[in-house]
Design brief:
The chain is about 30% helix and about 20% strand. The chain is α/β, with parallel strands linked by helices and about 200 residues long. Helix 2 links the parallel strand 3 and strand 4. About 5% of the residues have low confidence.
């Protein structure tokens, strides 16, 4: 990442140095996951669609601890593996919108709240800014950001998604999702303001 682009990492000290943690990342470009993996202060395990595990990418992704998920239904194995990462005190990376989009946290799925409530792990919001953009001039590969362009990776303050009761009901998931969306949107707005992104 540092060879191809110029990442500027802000607030990495906010990521707890030990123990389980969930990094909730906005997702507007396919480089966002690899950029976070390459700049985070701790190894990050992402749930990645099974279609990406093909050819030489399969052993590579497995070797760096990424988790295969079948998005066609409820993949219990993937959920168990993700909870295992947190149970072992690791870092789970999640794109809470479920797929690449505007990257503005506008439509969150309940998956992030589920993992946070089940594990009790704090959530650290992460904004990746500058990875997308309509201007494709000067790009070696149009689908990627211009080489040596600046990409900001901004870590926010960790927070708890639950209300402290340990409830994991449907209403508790809905409440946690609402809390998470507000916190992530506020972080993204602050990150854009502070970086000019």
């Amino acid at each position: 990442m540092y060879t191809l682009w110029k990442p500027r990492v802000l607030g990495a000290w906010r990521v707890p140095a030990a123990g389980p943690v969930i990094l909730a990342v906005n997702h507007s470009h396919n480089i966002d996951g690899p950029m976070l993996m390459g700049t985070a202060p701790r190894p990050v395990h992402f749930l990645i669609k099974k279609e990406a595990f093909v050819g030489p990418l399969d052993p590579f992704l497995r070797g760096i601890g990424q988790l295969k998920v079948d998005r066609s239904g409820a993949d219990r194995t993937a959920v168990g593996n993700a909870l295992g990462v947190l149970r072992d005190g690791g870092v789970l990376g999640i794109f809470p919108e479920g797929t690449r989009g505007e990257g503005d946290f506008a439509s969150l799925r309940a998956g992030l709240a589920y993992f946070a409530l089940r594990s009790g792990a704090p959530i650290v919001p992460v904004a990746v800014l500058g990875s997308s953009g309509a201007d494709t001039r000067g790009r070696l590969i149009p689908a990627l950001p211009r080489l040596r362009s600046r990409i900001d990776v901004v870590f926010g303050d960790p927070f708890e998604a639950g209300d402290g009761t340990g409830r994991r009901t449907r209403s508790a998931l809905d409440e946690a999702t609402s809390v998470i969306q507000k916190r992530l949107s506020a972080h993204l707005e602050n990150a854009r303001r502070s970086t000019g992104g």
